[in-house]
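To illustrate this point, what follows is a protein record of this kind.

___
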Amino acid sequence: VQLVESGEGLVQAGGSSRLSCAASGFTFDDYTIGWFRQAPGKEREGVSCITSDGDTHYASSVKGRFTISRDNAKNVVYLQMDNLKPEDTAVYYCAASRRLTMRAITDLRFSTTIFPYWGQGTQVTVSS
């Protein structure tokens, strides 16, 4: 399983950026993909996720500003981030979990522990 994140790293406040998570080495259609982020000195937190059925979940801090989508033909998940704020500055990671349901995600509070596969992360810096 390989996950590789990419996207624009430096954005001004109020601007937009789109992150991509390219997946390989597994049956992409069977997996829920999540986006997480970790700011300096803080714990890694869930941002958004999308199941194999296309169900989506967003953290309250990004709801209405971020949009997650997936292209199963290309094995890619996107995170469109609009109206970015300085507090969105963090390393962003994508993660994968096989057949993880939205019920499990909400019951387990979108924990990092339910995603066994992780990318290396990509830095996003939002300047004020």
In short: The CA atoms of residues 48 and 58 lie 4 Å apart. The mean pLDDT is 96. The longest strand covers residues 90-98.
